[in-house]
Amino acid sequence: MRQRQTIGERLGFGCQSAWYVVALAMSLAGCATATRRGPSALDTLIAVQELDGVGEDYWRFLQFSEPDLAAKAGNAITTLPVPTQDWAKRDAQFARAAIASLDEVHVNALPQDAYVSWLSLRWEMEAMSGRTAFHWTNVFDFSPGRSTLDRAATILQLQSIKDVGTAQRFTGLLEKVAELGRTLRLEYEERARRGIRLSRPVAEHAIAHLRSQIAPPASSPFRLPRDFTVSTDTAWHMQLARTVDELITQRVNPSLDSLATFLEREKDLGSDMPGHLRLPGGAMHYAALLRYRSTVEVTPEEAHAIGLREVSRIAPLVVAARRAAGLPIDRDSLRAALKRDSILLFDERGSLPERIAHLFESAVKEMEPMFGPVPTTGLSVGVLANATIASPVAVYEPATFRNPSALYLLNVDELVSRSAVYLPALVLGDLMPGRHLQQGSQFEIANRPIFRRLGSHDGFVKGWEVYALEVADSVSTTLTPSQRFGVRMRELAAACGLVIDTGINALGWSRADALKFLRAYLPDDDEDLDRDFVLASAEAPGALAAAALGARELRGLRRWATRELGAGFSLAEFHREVLRVGSVPLPVLGSHLERWIWELKHPAPPAGARR
Predict the structure, then answer these.
(1) Which end of the chain is more exposed for a tag (fewer CB within 10 A), N or C?
(2) Together in a domain, 384 and 516
(3) Does 289 lie in the same domain as 223?
């Protein structure tokens, strides 16, 4: 008989998980290299139970390590992200113990989908186990939209307040926001002592965003959840509102102000160079980030060369699309024409959600046969409220257990400033057949581990968005010439993102170098190019690179499947299989598709047939 300890019990984390007993001796566990017979049904049962145990341990661990993910799953949250070295060490310790547990699983006995979970878990744990080496150069706690404080605000907004107990839990989290501000200041004071500072452009962006979060209680990002209504007839409601107002005014805002003041004092000591290369050990850290975000085994130098080739491949397609649309060739004339068209199109801004809905319905009708059915998960479309210069063109929030309907918000001012020509490209990439189709399909597979249903790997998810654009353009019979131009421009922008990301973080490109390259291919204003490419590359190294690298990998997998299956290849079936697997590291997807191809080439004999 064998007893299994949870990973937390092995490490002494104090996880309160019951042990369970598995029949038979240790000879049935572990890798199957020494087993001469094929795995039995009992082997499979034991292997699946052991893998499920590791997955459950990982999910419990994520409640503390990534509480924003746990909040999206509808779990009760009692902590916020803690960006300290001690927590990074704790993560690495858990990851090493998880790898040991995964290596005890009889992988040859796992069903295919469970094997994909095993591969995904092991990939994630290997990446997590090495992060402590880069703790001090992990200077991304203030990136707008991705910052530690933004994640804390998301957690607070996802809380469900139903009674006095949940109200107390909310105020406890709010008190932790003030503690988080102090923790971040201490962390960055230590980085400054080590000569590690935010670059000046990144610091200016971070300070402006941080100052915007210091707001009166009614408009604070840390206010009560939007779906909670204070009732004047309920005493604890009134007490909660008063307590939240006091905490934001007297503790949260002063803590954030102290943090912003520290960053302002340090700003002028930072470098004008925006990339990661300037930091001690930054080159190695960027290589690790590129691998983690893209999930592709490629060096920064190789990725940069790929980006240049992708730009060279797509740029002529953009030129052809621009000519077909009758748009000017000169960059300044093109910008003027695009903006003029946008102003005409957006005369009635209130109609934007209806326009998006119409484009979405058209895309579903045309693309479903090639990509599979649109998810039954709801989709709400609206306009981004209180948009600022730092706000993105579009925001997509996938469905969660807390909010079972996906949300898509458009920044009208940004669309007017750039061009309405890009609107169909946004719908195709962000909604159908792009991200909404992928994330919604993944979320709806109920028999998957939670970490796979909610998972999001940039190489897969962002890569799918760009990949879907290319396929949609090739199969669509309804896109107008100007809309095809918008689709091609979005593909080109992704390829440029790969060049800029690697150029800034690995090759020492300056802001001027990046803008010079971008102006040669994209018509956007320098302000937009700076925010969308230069700052984005510095604030989240590897994220822009992941889209083009992921799309290229997906195209390669499709070509491989086409070559292997020949006349038996179906693009629709290929897409459905990729979507069925969901977001996993791309090498894991490749491993699964190898099995899928083999099974299609060697179908099982009909039941009862003689062998």
Answers:
(1) C
(2) yes
(3) no
HEC readout, 348-415:
CHHHHHHHHHHHHHHHHHHHHHHHCCCCCCEEEEEECCCCCCCCCCEEEECCCCCCCEEEEEECHHHH
The two tokens of residue 36 are: 């001469």
Place of tokens 């924003």: 68
Together in a domain, 349 and 205: no
Digit-coded pLDDT (tens) for 71-115: 888 888 899 999 999 999 999 999 999 999 999 999 999 999 999
Contacts of residue 272, Cβ cutoff 8 Å, sequence gap at least 6: 199, 200, 201, 510, 511
Cis amide prior to 433 (ω within 30 degrees) = yes
Tell me the mean pLDDT in the region 217-244. 92
Closest CA to 293 of 545, 592, 551: 545
| Structural contact between residues 46 and 28, judged by C-beta atoms closer than 8 angstroms | yes
Residues 6+ apart with CB under 8 A from 400: 72, 73, 74, 158, 443, 454
pLDDT at 605: 76
Specify the pTM.
0.90
| Residue 220 sits in the same domain as residue 306 | no
Residues 295 and 392 reside in one and the same domain: yes
**What is residue 38's DSSP assignment?**
P
* Predicted pLDDT at 85: 94
* Segment (H or E) for 381: strand 378-383
**Number of domains into which the chain is organized:** 4
The one-letter amino acid code at 225 reads P
- % of the chain exceeding 90 in pLDDT: 74
Q: Which of 506, 491, 490 is nearest to 298 (CA)?
A: 506
Tokens of 362: 């058209």
CA separation for the pair 575, 552 (Å, rounded): 15
Angle at CA 519, nearest 5°, toward 517 and 522? 110
Q: What is the DSSP string of 116-184?
A: HHHHHHHHHHHHHHTGGGGSTT---TT-TTTSHHHHHHHHHHT----SHHHHHHHHHHHHHHHHHHHHH
- Distance of alpha carbon 506 from alpha carbon 502, whole angstroms: 5
pLDDT per position as a tens digit, 398-436? 998 878 899 999 888 887 777 778 889 999 999 999 999
Q: Are residues 412 and 341 in the same domain?
A: yes
Q: Are 419 and 532 contained in the same domain? A: yes
Query: Does residue 499 lie in a domain region?
Result: yes
Beta partners for residue 407, in sequence order? 380, 397
Contacts of 56 (CB under 8 A, 6+ apart): 6, 17
What's the burial of 421, exposed, middle or buried (CB within 10 Å: 0-12/13-18/19+)? buried
Q: Structural domain of residue 228, as residue ranges?
A: 148-272
Q: Do the domain assignments include residue 593?
A: yes
- C-alpha 564, offset from chain centre: 31
Distance CA(561)–CA(309), nearest Å, equals 23
Burial 285-310 (b: 16+ CB within 10 A, else e): bbbbbbbbbbbbebebeebbebbbeb
